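In response to a reviewer's request, we include the raw inputs and outputs for one of the modeled complexes. The four entities were modeled together in a single run.
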Amino acid sequence: MTLSKTSISALFAAVTFVSGSLIVVQTSVADSSSTVIAPSSKTPIVNRAITESEVLAAQIAWGEALVAISTTYDMKGIDAAKALAEKVIDAAYGYQFGPVLFNPTLTVGAQTFRTTRAGALAYFVGGDPAFPMDKGFALKGWRKVEIKNAAIFISGNTASTMGNVIITGKDGNVTIVDKTWQFFKDDNGKLRIILHHSSLPYKGK
Amino acid sequence: MTLSKTSISALFAAVTFVSGSLIVVQTSVADSSSTVIAPSSKTPIVNRAITESEVLAAQIAWGEALVAISTTYDMKGIDAAKALAEKVIDAAYGYQFGPVLFNPTLTVGAQTFRTTRAGALAYFVGGDPAFPMDKGFALKGWRKVEIKNAAIFISGNTASTMGNVIITGKDGNVTIVDKTWQFFKDDNGKLRIILHHSSLPYKGK
Amino acid sequence: MTLSKTSISALFAAVTFVSGSLIVVQTSVADSSSTVIAPSSKTPIVNRAITESEVLAAQIAWGEALVAISTTYDMKGIDAAKALAEKVIDAAYGYQFGPVLFNPTLTVGAQTFRTTRAGALAYFVGGDPAFPMDKGFALKGWRKVEIKNAAIFISGNTASTMGNVIITGKDGNVTIVDKTWQFFKDDNGKLRIILHHSSLPYKGK
Amino acid sequence: MTLSKTSISALFAAVTFVSGSLIVVQTSVADSSSTVIAPSSKTPIVNRAITESEVLAAQIAWGEALVAISTTYDMKGIDAAKALAEKVIDAAYGYQFGPVLFNPTLTVGAQTFRTTRAGALAYFVGGDPAFPMDKGFALKGWRKVEIKNAAIFISGNTASTMGNVIITGKDGNVTIVDKTWQFFKDDNGKLRIILHHSSLPYKGK
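The model returned the following structure tokens for the whole complex.
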């Protein structure tokens, strides 16, 4: 077999892309001058990389969970709300890996950082004598969550977001926070929050 | 604002997914009972994760480059082929990071592993007195490359493939190799080969 | 060769570790019953993983840089301080990758998030009409920085920290902030800040 | 507080490192001119990065396991050897994540790649009618394993090695293979083999 002039030209067209970056090839690999038979996209795969859509879904899930805890509290009381909060923490945060880098919006002093599961639970539903300042952030009647990302950085098996989260209570009051999340994809392919820094916007003076 | 019975049901439908994995939410977040306003997919993003399609494109590019070097050699001679091979290595491999884990198909003895750029170039085009056994693998008249992946593992910012690569020469001879590649996404967002193990299939006895 | 009873026992001692996790082996591989000759620790290596000591060094470097900009401003004026701030941003942040997730302590409104290099520079040294609220945070006479981490999460090629940073001015005034950083190891093996969320501690009410 | 000339010099010494890479600071942060109080190295940490010593330990563990299976077979028979092989596979490989990229040394044809646990077990101990060519590689009387790495690439939460593994049987026969491994750190902090390509060295002609 020898190549026709046409296919040779095609090859050199491909070659001109080589310098400076990974070779870019024609996507129409099925055309007659093609000399590479593309691999199938049906290969068995393990994929531990995070996609943007997985990040957005995890953010929405966090918002849904906050509203669900608030609504459960209003409808069924503190025990049901606490039980749900525990499920949410166990499902959405990464305390099974060790400390979570969690700085909630309204924590103070030596209890600012909630690196333990107990600290996170106390923040969301209160009632823990070890965290006496906690009134239960998730019990405050939240009914609506809006997420506005300023930027996202996906490193590979972890992804970070920064932006505003606007939450609205059943009384119509609106709270805006600056929020940073980092998600880590676990061995089951689920995203878990391993970093969460929330703060009230600076007011200036 | 108070929630209607309908929207409460919707919330609890969402909540039932909580246990055992990250909360799965309804994708129809725009419906009237929705309480979460999804983040925009237009956020500025840095994405260092590797997708399956990037992996397949990088494999195809390797095949195109092999055929291009062979064809260049036949049409323009060794100097042009060597110049092209250098461009290919610099564009597609990761020697700028340090040693590449490269075990070509036909290398022997103390020169089996080509962890340096010079060793890779010698393997592809020969002519290096430091690698006297090398005859120039990419000069052997290759005209067609077919890639058949057995499996892919994407870790995040790196991805690995294993399978067969079938290469056909201009004389119609077919060579099959077992090939493993690992690609790493660099600071420019390009995939680079940082591991390449190629071997002839075991023949049994 | 047949194994003595002693070496068989040693083997089975090793085997008892197998279940439940990766096999743990005796480190005294050189003893007479050993059957594995350990690989050398002198192997050529590319290492893109981040160590804890690299994280701590990068934090200290950030503190040194803040003090250096402040001191340069006091000694040499705004032009020298701005030139230094540009070097610091280019050396320590990851704007060459794209947007950086940067929420400085004192920014407000639509300019809260400084995802661009220009926004970061304006925050540190002011003087940019596009960021009229910025007075130049790094010009405020800082002389001392103390870093108190609450927790660290190293994902692999990226690492995150959360804790307090206490900065002291030349007048002795002390400012405490809650600070989250995420560092990413670049192609040159250097850590770069790709996320930085700083906030004043919540005051309660 | 004003800085003495001495401490100013120290600052500018630090500053001269700024351009071109992340700022390198003096490690003697406790000296009198220091302006940064280093973070403690006692911070609670989650560390998913892989170290070189973890890689070497995992390689040794693989060698110990191979010898242990062989010795168990000789001493206790096939049932005990098979039971041990299952434990080894479950402890050291990553089949719980999905397909493992495993190309053993002596496999042929359509069964070259052992992406399933059953395929790996058949290769090591034989006796599976679904893999009729397998005679049980780990049953061949192996008593000694030597590992010689050519190069290592640590990406972050995954690490790859390439080199020779020399295995010696109880009859003194020596087999050398070219071997590539990729290890992935799991949610429990253990390294698991997610890629393993082994081949007999090319013989030339």
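As requested, we also summarize the result in words. Chain C is about 30% helix and 25% strand. The first strand of chain C starts at residue 36 and ends at 37.
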